[in-house]
DNA sequence: GCCTATTAAATTGTGCGCAATATAAATTGC
DNA sequence: GCAATTTATATTGCGCACAATTTAATAGGC
């Protein structure tokens, strides 16, 4: 549905920023991170650190690789991040006796206790939103994520 | 709809990673960046640099602030990024004569020429996908982004 | 058993993101 | 006009992300 002859409708330009789905993900992810920061700062956590805590609160003493598989992050990101969290007292890292290649990441007492403080974070962040709508979007995006990492393997 | 007595359905745990909409955005954004990287590397661009080029291909000679408003990035991110792009020969930065506070960012000849190479990037990245579906998702996410930055001002 | 291949983390180097601060130019008030 | 405020960019410091490489331990083939 061109407007006329060879003059291309600028709205059909494939390189228009507003046409890029990837940019909406990029912008939303950055903006969400900025929204969480002040809330998580009160728990002495950054946003990626909060995600690690979510993984460990579900199941303690996981390996670095298991955490990485869950969050789609590699050791280049996780190793220094986990060291910072260890320094903050949230968790401890120790080589697995059974398999010395592995490092088990375990919550400290304060790391476990922090879960109580974190319980209200989801509520704060979704306050005033339509929860049904957010959940529908979450399911849609979970499918996108699945497709993105399912396409390039991912056990 | 609890299963029994005081045993909470683990699926209702508000801190479950899979329940977090924010995580789906985070994971998708990271995975998308990883998918674009090898394609953009052939244009000598990173993903954020590609976004800057999209902005400048739409309208050349914009100020740092105008680019930042479009991408939701501040000068702490943009200034060094633009300097790297200048060093790569994609663009030039010069103080505005009218208002010496401003810095105008202009495409070089090779930066303009790079647009031809970039024209097929969206097609490569969306190959095999349902374009109607992607566009519906893009519109949904554009609304989310709008709500996220509309809530905290944004002129 | 021994050698090769595989697996798990750590390390290195580069490029973002962003809060906080600094610097400097334009605008406003009076 | 000139001080005070506002606006635009740069700088500093820290914490991710990630590709590529390295180191070390286990598993497999023979």
From TrEMBL, chains A, B:
Keyword hit for Transcription regulation: yes
Keyword Cell membrane assigned: no
Keywords attached to this entry: Cytoplasm, DNA-binding, Transcription, Transcription regulation
Compartments where located: Cytoplasm
Pfam families reported for this sequence: Staph_reg_Sar_Rot (PF22381)
InterPro entries xrefs: HTH_MarR-typ, MarR/SlyA-like, Transc_reg_Sar_Rot_HTH, WH-like_DNA-bd_sf, WH_DNA-bd_sf
The protein, known as: MarR family transcriptional regulator
Phylogenetic placement of the source organism: Bacteria, Pseudomonadati, Pseudomonadota, Alphaproteobacteria, Sphingomonadales
